[in-house]
């Protein structure tokens, strides 16, 4: 996979605002959500925001791993399945939450587990967009989103002292 050309760094403040915007959109979708199923690890933070905003207290995880190094996606592995209780009715009234959909492979795997669930992500790239029902911001396929939990502040040398070679 070629390195993404564009970077989209997201601060904690921006991510909180975008996750709350997703909660707003979801508040009009369904009267009573049975539960949230968040796709770890990226879905954990948006699920915390949405559960607080929508008052959803039953939160389940489905643990999926695929991107094993910087930007290349390996084979998708389901490390922990969804509680069978929530698989009844094919996931009707269940809200699946993730941070983003990129190629859509993760979304496809989890959707297949609960075809009637509502799938929401904060960000979406074009290839994954058809797999999600509600999202906030689309970014181009060649953009890499840098999430706040992957970043930190670092010292920047004064311009006069020149930059490392
Ligand atoms: O649409 P896709 O191409 O499948 O990519 C999207 C998935 O990739 C990332 O998770 P990752 O597998 O990196 O694990 P993590 O959430 O634990 O970081 C992200 O959180 C999504 O779950
Ligand atoms: Mg993930």
Automatic annotation (TrEMBL):
Enzyme class, first EC level, given as a word: transferase
Write out the residues that bind Mg(2+): 99
- Cell compartment(s), UniProt: Cell membrane
Keywords linked to the UniProt accession: Cell membrane, Glycosyltransferase, Magnesium, Membrane, Metal-binding, Purine salvage, Transferase
Binding-site positions, GMP: 102-106, 144-145
Q: Which residues bind guanine?
A: 102, 145
Pfam family of this protein, just one? Pribosyltran
Q: Where is the Phosphoribosyltransferase domain?
A: 11-154
Q: Which residues bind 5-phospho-alpha-D-ribose 1-diphosphate?
A: 41-42, 98-106
One GO molecular function term of this record is: xanthine phosphoribosyltransferase activity
InterPro entries linked: PRTase-like, PRTase_dom, Xanthine_Guanine_PRibTrfase
Q: What's the Enzyme Commission number for this chain?
A: 2.4.2.22
Q: How does it sit in the membrane?
A: Peripheral membrane protein
Listed pathway(s)? Purine metabolism; XMP biosynthesis via salvage pathway; XMP from xanthine: step 1/1; Purine metabolism; GMP biosynthesis via salvage pathway; GMP from guanine: step 1/1
Reactions the enzyme catalyzes:
XMP + diphosphate = xanthine + 5-phospho-alpha-D-ribose 1-diphosphate; IMP + diphosphate = hypoxanthine + 5-phospho-alpha-D-ribose 1-diphosphate; GMP + diphosphate = guanine + 5-phospho-alpha-D-ribose 1-diphosphate
Cofactor(s) in the UniProt record: Mg(2+)
What residues bind xanthine, as annotated? 102, 145
- Which function does this protein serve? Purine salvage pathway enzyme that catalyzes the transfer of the ribosyl-5-phosphate group from 5-phospho-alpha-D-ribose 1-diphosphate (PRPP) to the N9 position of the 6-oxopurines guanine and xanthine to form the corresponding ribonucleotides GMP (guanosine 5'-monophosphate) and XMP (xanthosine 5'-monophosphate), with the release of PPi. To a lesser extent, also acts on hypoxanthine.
Q: Which family does it belong to?
A: Belongs to the purine/pyrimidine phosphoribosyltransferase family. XGPT subfamily.
- Output the HAMAP family linked to this UniProt entry: XGPRT
Q: How does it assemble?
A: Homotetramer.
Q: What is this protein called?
A: Xanthine-guanine phosphoribosyltransferase
State the organism's lineage.
Answer: Bacteria, Pseudomonadati, Pseudomonadota, Alphaproteobacteria, Hyphomicrobiales
Q: What's the name of its gene?
A: gpt
């Amino acid at each position: 996979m070629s390195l993404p050309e564009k970077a989209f760094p997201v601060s904690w403040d921006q991510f909180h605002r975008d996750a709350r915007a997703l909660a707003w959109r979801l508040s009009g979708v369904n009267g009573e959500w049975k539960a949230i199923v968040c796709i770890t690890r990226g879905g954990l933070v948006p699920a915390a925001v949405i559960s607080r905003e929508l008052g959803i207290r039953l939160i389940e995880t489905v643990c999926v791993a695929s991107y094993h190094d910087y930007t290349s996606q390996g084979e998708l592995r389901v490390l922990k399945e969804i509680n069978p209780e929530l698989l009844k009715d094919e996931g009707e009234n269940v809200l699946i939450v993730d941070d983003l959909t990129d190629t859509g492979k993760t979304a496809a795997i989890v959707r297949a587990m609960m075809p009637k669930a509502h799938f929401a992500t904060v960000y979406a790239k074009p290839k994954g967009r058809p797999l999600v029902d509600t999202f906030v911001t689309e970014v181009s396929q060649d953009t890499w989103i840098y999430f706040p939990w992957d970043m930190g502040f670092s010292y920047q040398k004064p311009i006069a002292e020149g930059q490392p070679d």
